[in-house]
Amino acid sequence: MDNRVYLKISIIIGTLGCLFLYFYSPIITSDVSLIPDLIYSEDDYHADAARIYKDLGMLAQRRNDFTQALKLYQISLDHKPDSQELQDKLVVIDKILRQSQTQFAHHQEKPISTQL
């Protein structure tokens, strides 16, 4: 190969190396103050987790799986304890579950007819 080809290749490799060091040196040196955009903050994590579990709870509620919806809303509330919306959803689901348990218990108390 010609010396010009080797020169071009070395320039490209050198440029890529410099770019790598420029973008990743804060990670390598563990100076996280230099890379605020690359960090997923704890607040963002909790906000996203709360939204995801709330959405899953709404899906379970639409399927009339109220026990699962209650669990998912509770997990969501664990991530975002100050959410009035989630607290309201928990109250509604809890009320639905209590009513269904009462209806089930009342249904079990009825005598079974022995007539054919």
Quickly describe the structure.
By secondary structure, this protein is mostly helical. 75% of the residues lie in helices and 0% in strands.
Features:
116 residues, rod-shaped, mainly alpha, Serine Threonine Protein Phosphatase 5, Tetratricopeptide repeat, 2 domains
Describe this structure in words.
This protein is an all-alpha fold. The chain has two domains: 3-36; 42-109, Serine Threonine Protein Phosphatase 5, Tetratricopeptide repeat. Helix content is 75%, strand content 0%. The chain is built from four helices and no strands. The protein has helices at residues 3-28, 42-62, 66-79, 84-109. Helix 3 runs antiparallel to helix 4. The longest helix has 26 residues, at 3-28. It is rod-shaped, with a radius of gyration of 29 Å. The mean pLDDT is 79.
Tell me, what is the CATH class of the largest domain? Mainly Alpha
Q: What's the quaternary structure here?
A: single chain
Order of helices and strands: HHHH
Shape: rod-shaped
What's the CATH topology label of the largest domain? Serine Threonine Protein Phosphatase 5, Tetratricopeptide repeat
The overall strand count is 0
Strand content: under 5%
Helical run tally? 4
What is the percent of helical residues? over 70%
End-to-end Cα distance, whole Å, is 99 Å
Number of individual domains: 2
Structural category:
mainly alpha
Q: Mind summarizing the main beta sheet?
A: none
Contiguous low-pLDDT stretches (5 residues minimum) are none
CATH architecture of the largest domain: Alpha Horseshoe
Could you tell me the mean pLDDT? 79
Rg calculated over all Cα atoms: 29 Å
